[in-house]
Design brief:
Layout (H helix, E strand, L loop, with lengths): L6 H27 L2 H12 L5 H21 L1 H10 L2 H28 L14 E4 L3 E4 L3 E7 L2 E7 L5 E2 L11 E6 L2 H4 L9 H9 L2 E4 L7 H11 L5 E9 L3 H4 L7 E4 L5 E4 L5 H4 L1 H7 L6 H24 L3 E9 L11 H9 L5 E6 L13 H15 L3
Parallel strand pairs: 6-7, 6-8, 8-11, 11-12
Antiparallel strand pairs: 1-2, 3-4, 4-5, 9-10
Helix pairs in contact: 1-3, 1-4, 2-3, 7-14, 8-12, 12-13
């Protein structure tokens, strides 16, 4: 026969019951609120994992409900332990678990250093990238590589400055009228021959020099730095074209590379990559790449990115050139308000009255098994940019 509970035990039992119920209710409420809009805002739109919103929603909801059911299943056992075990005994029982957890963490850290996953292994420009002290990385200077993408062998050449060019010996002419392009791998023309990329198409149709400053995996800050550094070299800039995708909002918070941050008075400051002990832990770096941003992180990256895009426009207009921001979205052509990205574009571009075009690319204009534009997609982008720039 069980001994009757004393007053302290009864109090612990009531508290344990209430805690279990509160956690179960919280898990179920979180599962209910995890709809497609929440997943789009916090997971897929800003981090770009290779799963659909619906798949993420089903997975997250399933895990939350499963956790609630497990708690309910073991509720009586948890309450019994809490009500019949003193804090000292509970601490002694917990210590081996904490030691095992710490040992597991050390083992995982060692494994990640020995064989890091792709997200931690080098830079996204591989196999044709090179480190850069200011931008993080550029194309491999003075190199020509053949990369197989979507079943095609694509030749990628970079000149001595790591700028993508038709032939690695090519150098831009600073005296010619020039359109400067910047952005991430879409601007770079990932998976496309140079002549298929939209900067090359525009150069051929407008007769202007088009310089491609894009870099694979770039955040908005890297694209801005590269553009602002290059612009003074050109005597007759006609326009700057900045490709922006929501995925860059997540990248703009990465601290394992040189990056721009907002200073105390809201100005942009370049800070070096973090090198403290915690920043070197591979486990934390992996968790940092977990595809989720909370509301505070979203607000922080929106403020930073809005400043970067505004400064891009200011610097461009100061040179007498026209700024243009190009946003790409997957799917059929549709009004702005029907896009999942609408809230981002309103915050960054509409509110600041920055000139932009939103280009919709249906699946048949993308590379096979990929999210980047194929040759037909590049044609669509080039036509949209030419229409937006007009006779400039």
């Amino acid at each position: 026969m069980l001994a009757p509970l004393n007053s302290a035990s009864r109090t612990r039992r009531v508290v344990a019951e209430l805690l279990v119920v509160a956690v179960v209710v919280a898990l179920l409420v979180a599962a209910y609120r995890t709809d497609q809009a929440w997943i789009s805002r916090h997971v897929t739109l800003l981090n770009g994992p290779p799963l659909s919103d619906e798949a993420w929603r089903a997975g997250v909801r399933g895990l939350l409900v499963l956790a609630a059911l497990v708690l309910l299943r073991w509720r009586l056992a948890l309450v019994s332990i809490a009500s019949n075990t003193s804090l000292a005994r509970l601490a002694r029982a917990t210590l081996p678990v904490l030691v095992a957890f710490a040992a597991s963490a050390v083992t995982v850290e060692a494994f990640l250093r020995w064989r890091p996953p792709g997200v931690l292994r080098g830079r996204p420009v591989d196999p044709y990238g090179a480190p850069h002290p200011r931008y993080g990385w550029t194309g491999q200077p003075s190199s020509t590589s053949t990369v197989r993408v979507s079943g095609r062998d694509v030749v990628v050449a970079f000149n001595r400055e790591g700028i993508r060019v038709p032939r690695q010996a090519d150098e831009p002419d600073p005296a010619r009228p020039t359109i400067l392009f910047t952005g991430e791998s879409i601007a770079l023309g990932f998976g496309l021959e140079y002549a298929e990329s939209f900067p090359a198409l525009i150069a051929a149709r407008r007769g202007l020099q088009c310089v491609n400053l894009g870099g694979a995996g770039y955040g908005s800050d890297q694209a801005y730095l590269r553009l602002s550094d290059a612009m003074p070299r050109f005597e007759r800039p006609v326009a700057t074209v900045t490709v922006f995708i929501p995925l860059q909002l997540g990248r703009n918070l990465y601290d394992d590379r040189p990056r721009l941050v907002l200073g105390p008075t809201g100005e942009l400051e370049l800070v070096p990559a973090s090198t403290d002990f915690l920043s070197r832990l591979q486990i934390l770096r992996l968790l940092w790449r977990w595809p989720y941003l909370g509301d505070r992180s979203i607000d922080r990256t929106l403020s930073l990115t809005a400043t970067i895009l505004r400064e891009t426009s200011i610097r461009t207009r100061a040179r007498g050139a026209t700024p243009l921001f190009v946003i790409l979205s997957h799917g059929a052509s549709r009004p702005l308000d029907e896009h999942a990205e609408t809230w981002i574009l309103r915050a960054l571009l509409v509110k600041q009255e920055l000139p932009f075009i939103l280009v919709d690319l249906p699946p048949d204009q993308l590379l096979n098994d990929h999210y980047h534009p194929g040759p037909r997609g590049a044609e669509t982008i080039a036509a949209a940019i030419l229409a937006a720039l007009g006779a400039n």
